[in-house]
Amino acid sequence: MTIAAIPRRRHLAGLSAHGFHRVVYYEWGEADNPRVVVCVHGLARNGRDFDTLAQALVTTHRVLAVDMPGRGKSEWLRDANDYTFPTYLTTLTALVARSGTERVDFVGTSMGGLLGIALAAQPGSPVARLVVNDVGPIIDPAGLQRIGSYVGLNPVFETYAAIETYVRTISAPFGTLTDAQWTHLTRTNVRQRDDGRWVLAYDPNIAVPFKQANSPIDLWPLWDAIRCPTFVLRGAQSDLFSHATAQAMAGRGPRPRIIEFAGVGHAPMLQSEEQILPVVEFLTGESTD
After folding, report:
1. 182-200 burial code (b ≥16 CB/10 A, e <16)
2. Which residue from 245, 11, 253 is spatially nearest to 116, judged by alpha carbons?
3. Which of 48, 87, 122, 212 has the fewest Cβ atoms within 10 angstroms?
């Protein structure tokens, strides 16, 4: 599966406790297709992570992948304490409204998966089908500590080659990727400053609420409230989402199908046919054999 073409770039006005901000999202597929998939990335990533999955869905769906506030091309928030779920959920509510359809499918990786769980659990939720990628109602501390060791540090690099090496290093749990896939995942998640040096394409302050959290999450009540068809992906070596948690999820709430990918940690990046085709099959209801 090849890296996808550049999508159409759109934007909307999001709202936090300290005002409005510009939110960028990407659109693939026919603009009037009412069959919509919303894709949401992990903590320090952005919507371009879903380029390849979107390319696999364009014949059946309109795909909307958002740069959450402070990431990618979206505006940085005025107050770091607004980088929290209430702000993100209002962003997604606005995106669903912008889609022009009342029901959407949802694919969320890590933080995006937690947001999908929160949305799908609400009475009258617009989520019709839910894909949760390498996250669950409880999170293993080891994974949080690893992510906390680098997110928000804001390193600066003299060359693009140096920042790609850095991205490959901190993102090694993504598993074995081709050089083209690593370049795509780096190019779409970095920016070159006016002085020619390179930095990551997110506001370092996204880490402030993440590092201030002083109690483990427990989203089992939300999980148990989900009623839509649900599919859970897991990297077999994930340090954030344990096999035991995945198995517990399979037996309660929406009772999803679980699939694990060997040789992958946190998180499967949906770049290969092995990872993408099961998602396509789930969202389309069609066999991909």
Report:
1. bbbbbbbbbeeeeeeebeb
2. 253
3. 212
β pairing state of 190-192 and 198-200: antiparallel
At 128-162, the pLDDT tens digits run 999 999 999 999 999 999 999 999 999 999 999 99
- Cα–chain center distance at 183: 18
Checking if the pLDDT of 287 tops 80, the result is no
What the block records as the tokens of 230 is 């649900």
What are the boundaries of each domain within the chain?
A: 8-284
Q: How many residues does the chain have?
A: 289
Confidence at 5, pLDDT banded by 50, 70, 90: low
The Cα–Cα gap between 277 and 289 comes to 9
178 Cβ neighbours under 8 A, 6+ residues apart: none
Q: At what angle do helices 179-187 and 160-170 cross, to 10 degrees?
A: 100
What is the pTM for the complete model shown?
Answer: 0.95
C-alpha distances in angstroms, 80 versus 24, 152, 286? 19, 11, 43
Q: What's domain 8-284's architecture?
A: 3-Layer(aba) Sandwich (3.40)
